[in-house]
Amino acid sequence: MSIVQNKKLSGYTLMSAGGIFLIAGFVGVVIAQESVFYGFFGIGAAFVAIGAAMLHKAKLE
């Protein structure tokens, strides 16, 4: 039995999760004025980059 992975859907999901982390970081830093939320920008950027790489890989196949 093989597992079929939809790389396009996975890429979009990771990019949307990254966007949510970026929004959470923005809300935390600007509105709540807490510096602890700066880490959310890094996590969001990582998710967006991984999602973009998966989309790029899906387009090559």
Separation of the first and last Cα atoms: 21 Å
Integer tally of domains: 1
Q: What is the overall pLDDT average?
A: 90
- Number of strand elements: 0
Low-pLDDT residue spans: none
For the report, how would you describe the main beta sheet?
A: none
How does the overall form come out from the CA principal axes?
A: elongated
Radius of gyration: 15 Å
Topology as H/E string? HH
Strand content: under 5%
Number of helices: 2
Output the structural class: mainly alpha
What fraction, in percent, of the residue positions are helical? over 70%
Summarize the structure.
The protein has 2 helices and no strands. By secondary structure, the protein is mainly α. The model has no long low-confidence stretch (mean pLDDT 90).
Please, could you describe this protein's structure?
By secondary structure, the protein is mainly α. It has one domain. Helix content is 79%, strand content 0%. The chain is built from 2 helices and no strands. The longest helix is centred in the first third of the chain and has 25 residues, at 7-31. It is elongated, with a radius of gyration of 15 Å. 13% of the residues are buried. Keywords: Membrane, Transmembrane, Transmembrane helix.
